[in-house]
Design a protein that fits this description.
The protein is globular, with a radius of gyration of 20 Å. Helix 3 crosses helix 12. It has 348 residues and is α/β, with parallel strands linked by helices. The protein has helices at 12-15, 29-33, 46-64, 83-92, 96-100, 125-138, 147-157, 202-207, 246-259, 276-291, 303-307, 315-336, and strands at residues 3-5, 35-41, 68-74, 106-109, 141-145, 162-176, 189-199, 211-212, 214-216, 220-221, 223-228, 231-236. The strands form two sheets. Strands 1-3-2-4-5-12-11-8 form an eight-stranded mixed sheet. Strands 7-6-9-10 form a four-stranded antiparallel sheet, with no helix packed on it. A hairpin with a 3-residue loop joins strand 9 and strand 10. The protein has two domains: 3-242 and 313-336, Class I glutamine amidotransferase (GATase) domain (Rossmann fold); 246-307, no CATH class.
Amino acid sequence: MPIAIEGGRVPALLKRAKALEPNPAPDNAQGANDVLRIALVNNMPDAALEDTELQFFELLGAAAGDARLSLKLFSLPNLPRTDWGQKHLANFYSGIDDLLGSRFDGAIITGTEPRRPNLREEPYWPELLQVLNWAENNTASTVLSCLAAHAGVLASEGIPRNPLSDKQFGVFEYRKLTSHPLTNGIGASMRMPHSRWNEVKADALAAGGYEVLTQSEDASVDLFVKRMKKSMFVHFQGHPEYGTRTLLKEYRRDTKRFLRRERERYPSLPQGYFDAAAWQLLADFREKAIENRGEEILADFPESAVAATLQNSWQASASAVYRNWLQYLRSAKSEHGAVVVMTPAARA
């Protein structure tokens, strides 16, 4: 089912997507009741801003079935942005005050690249608290992705994130711990991509009243949920929205940072992602890069050859979880009928 972008201003990358609906959602009451309105609060850095738009657009499109979806784009203020990023937001995104004065059926809030060990010291923290409080009162359910999940549990229950000795990077197998509507139709386990330097622990989440739905022996918790006032908050430590090549592009970026001496250690290869042939190509490049450390050698990075070997082993599970999430939104909308705009209260 096609997805509409509210406001009629469509970023170039999304214009090329085949499932794009040419017009925004209908304004008449009967038509509007058939549409699920979702706020995408995209806080990713400029380099990943458009890719993230497309990733969520494609994932929601694959999960929608016969549901009609309408997306509206937002981003937190006070995030570091280049001139290009500021222009992109000005052209295609709505202001945060617009979000706080509206109600949506659902919301998706992404993370961003952390600058400080304590998330409470990030310049966008006050606005993020406002958005989380808004979501508790003005959505049926909100998805918090990666760093946003860490920020959410810190804001709500004071649960800290714990630094890892190395980046949790790759595609990991997660087993289902319990039956839940979000994991209906999925087998005993599911694979999900992760890319993070920190984690929140299962015991701390359980003590804070969160229900952990999937967990891995190698990569800790992934999916967990908790009812927050009027909304079900859905937390992912991983990235079900990632495209097939996203981890490869991130690995190349980290390699570039090593070659430019912006990081001391050569990045670890993502686990569970490359086949043996791709692994060997990248291992050979690693040897050359360490011996001839300089950005110019990046021209020899075997991106095309490796990309041709990649398989998206998490797409089916990711689509299933989001299909269940959209069904939850539809059920909530049907039960509650017409939505009423609620003024957000201040979070302590």
